[in-house]
Amino acid sequence: MSEGGIGEGGADIGIRFEVRGRAGIITLDRPRALNALTHEMIRLMLAALASYAADEQVQTVVVHSSSERAFCAGGDVRHMAELARSGQRDAARAFWRDEYTLNHATAIFPKPYVSLVDGYCFGGGFGISGHGRYRVAGERLGFAMPEVAIGLFPDVGATHVLPRLPGWSGTFLALTGARIGMPDAMALGLYTHHVPVERWPDLIEAFAAGDEAGATLDRFAVVPPEPTLGPLYAEIDRIFAGGTIPAIVAALEHAARGTGPLAEFAAAQLATIRRVSPTSVFIAFEQMARGGGLDLAACLVREFRVVSRVLAGHDFYEGVRAVLIDKDQTPRWTPDRLEAVDPATIAPLFDMPLPDELVLPTFDA
């Protein structure tokens, strides 16, 4: 596949494809929208991966961004909310069905799949980069799974990834949507290598020349700085190890009454948890409790059940309105407090099968 290839038209569709030597290169190219993923971009990327898997010339696949500001700020959830609210909920669900299929495809891709990630990497951006064999972080990386702020939940396979992070750091990231930088993302194992961005063109050329991916990345990688949150990791574990949402809130309240960096950290996380969707916080907590015992495919199936039901609710639309449309940052959640959420309503979101369950294909199918 030459420049353009699938989805010829390049920037008009927000994504470009190229085979350069032995490398299949996917370039996210929707800079004004911070590379937010449209349904068309997802479909084209799925088609490109199928093509690269079958192409004997392609030895390594690389996905990166044309923008210095962002790798990908997530999926185009504003458009999905508009679709669903206009009576096209099945079209919105189709977006998530294909997105989760793409997330799974990157995990089972039969050749080295290398993500070069710098700038913003939120939500759906992690979905197309966080499950591949090699995950390269640039120095300006800003990682977050901020979906609880818009009445959604950390999806795109976060149910599988976040519970497997060290200690209880995944629960912290899921419940708060906190943004962390490259040093912490590396320390927590979200990325496999840190390569300075100025060396990325040489790295891509090495892949194009046919150099083996793992050895090449080891050659280019440098040691990242010490993690910013490192001194707080033990306290984060202690706080977020609580077996219930009320226990976590109580631990944050206690820590916030102190002084110093821990108190500042706890106060900020407490304010966040009380500001975002209460239902989403409970969903995220349930994800962390379940995900450690499930493989990625099983997690994605359950996420599709949950997102299908979230689309039938209230908070997602209200969160998108408050954060992305009106931008007044004053969402009116239903229920409006953590204490008003009935925990018994959360498990059925995950457990009740759908009439049209997510079915994940393989590259051999």
From TrEMBL:
<keyword id="KW-0378">Hydrolase</keyword>
<feature type="domain" description="Enoyl-CoA hydratase/isomerase">
    <location>
        <begin position="24"/>
        <end position="350"/>
    </location>
</feature>
<protein>
    <recommendedName>
        <fullName>3-hydroxyisobutyryl-CoA hydrolase</fullName>
        <ecNumber>3.1.2.4</ecNumber>
    </recommendedName>
</protein>
<dbReference type="InterPro" id="IPR045004">
    <property type="entry name" value="ECH_dom"/>
</dbReference>
<dbReference type="InterPro" id="IPR032259">
    <property type="entry name" value="HIBYL-CoA-H"/>
</dbReference>
<dbReference type="InterPro" id="IPR029045">
    <property type="entry name" value="ClpP/crotonase-like_dom_sf"/>
</dbReference>
<dbReference type="Pfam" id="PF16113">
    <property type="entry name" value="ECH_2"/>
</dbReference>
